[in-house]
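Reproducibility note. Readers wishing to regenerate the assembly model reported in the main text can use the exact inputs given here. Chain order matters: entities are listed in the order in which they were concatenated for prediction.
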Amino acid sequence: MESIFISIASYRDNELGRTIRDCTDKAAHPERLVFGINWQHDNHEFFEQFYDRRCRVIDTDYRESRGACWARHEAQKLYGGEDFVLQIDSHMRFVRDWDRICVDGVRKLQERGNRRVIISNLMPSYDPDDDGNLSRTYLTYRMGSFNQDGAIALKASVVQKPPPEPFSPGFSISAAFVFSIGDLYREVPIDPDLYFDGEEISYAVRAYTHGYDIYHCHHPIVYHYYTRKTDRKHWDDHGNWGERSIMAKARMRTLLMRSGEVADLGPYGLGTMRSIEEYEEHSGVNFRERTVKQPADEGSFPLTRDWVRSKLAAGGIGTAQIDPFSHCNARCWYCPVRYHPQPPDARRHMPIALFEKILRNLCEERDRKGLVSPAFNFIYTAHYNEILLYRHLTDMFEVLRKHGLRTLVLTNGIALTPQKADLIARYDDVVGGQVCINISAFERDRWIANTIGGNGASPATMRRTFHRTMKNIEYASQHLRGVSIQVNEPDPEQAAHQVDLARQMFPNATVRSVTSLSDRAGILHEAGILSNREDIARKSAGKSSVTGCGNTFTGIDGRHFGWLHVNALGKAILCCDDYHFDYTFGDFRTDTLRDIWLSDRHATMIERSFREICTRCSMAVWR
Ligand code: SF4
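Running the prediction on these inputs yields the following structure tokens for the assembly.
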């Protein structure tokens, strides 16, 4: 019986044990499985197979971890010459006989003349609390577009019927599921100095140049728990993750764009069996120009009303952004509503009954396996607003608790009073330790200029507001778990300075900076604040039209088909860029989710958005 080595890098993940159990339970031949696990954990964590003789374990204190690629690299070292290798994440579920499907798949694909074959997929999601009901979701794949650091990722779309061939050739991988012959681990070791962005495309190009052909399967083989909202990630615990990420991206650019930023990539460079130019020619990806040409047979992309309708009916709503109160008490310089406020009638508090109706509709569709994915369990309440000012905040938490849903609190800190912090603490099962404070500065005058300057208050009031906000953050960081501070500042030096200040002032909080701020459908460009026009020009070069949205966290679909957005009036709107509510397509006060989602008006709005708002957005997908 041919053996399979399964490599897992697990970071503080209590799904690890259940993943291994599901993997063995569903295998046609569990006796051929061997696990190599880099177990990065705290001292009170455990997984049930720790003493199972099939598990080779590297026992790592999570504080010593150097990130996902390093962890996968270490797990690879446990490979002992097995016939096949499988790399997965530690939060996965499997279809029955998955091992037979993978081995038979590789054997069949090898009949095309190349024994070096990789099967790698994006995958549908699963819900750990309902993993007896794995959806029969079919996916097709294409390359996405480049992000500003030069990384490009595989994208998936849900289709109602899979293509006739179970496997199709591809040019990137998903690191959460890679199945291949054992030689892959001998020939293409994972670069431990990559961090996150660029891991998959770098490995795909290296494997390709080592002679490997990559294929994607359209039928589900595994399922992935994408959201993991309450779990700690490496970057939550490691303040230096930003430096590691910067170095990692330089390695990626050196490999793919031949930028020369790193003198020697050591054993983690390209192979010699094929060139990167051959990869570019066959994949349509041009790394230096940062463009992607889709294959010729995809030229007739089915952008028709029927195609839009079938995508809407496919049951892909994975998450929702419901904004029960559309007003903000700050005027942050990077926020579009500072320059173009939302319509005045949006400044109202959504009645709690309406809020509950929307959630009930979502949960009912999920439970009947209708329009909402089985994995749906989380909503966002942020839409250029300050959610802590919502009049029915306590009721909102109650409704979320009643329906078993979670959210996060995204705030500028001004209204994060000790009373509100104590309230959030009482709903820890709902907020799940996720309080994120968006802020750009910690020096009084800079904070005032960036945040509330020009709001009409007197200088003395503004100074008091600053000191009260800092006290709020101090109290919250001492009394709530999981408080993170996001420093929004495009200048890297200034960002590093503000991050240092925040760490000194609030040692209990996790602090990170975001330097890549986004224009919102052209408003910030028109206001002369920041622009994504170059990025858009690069992505759209040689392409004729927008056909989708890359603004998603799950890898599956984008805002058009994977999200529901509702404003404080109860109107369904296109997405987070539609803050003038130009693309409304239904009203929850009078209609149900099903009426709204499947309406002609919705399909019309999507088609319109492809021609209008999306063409001004750097998240758009072009063909
Ligand atoms: S404007 Fe279009 S591309 Fe941009 S986030 Fe909205 S739906 Fe996505």
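We highlight two features of this model. Residues 296-302 have pLDDT under 50 and may be disordered. The radius of gyration is 24 Å.
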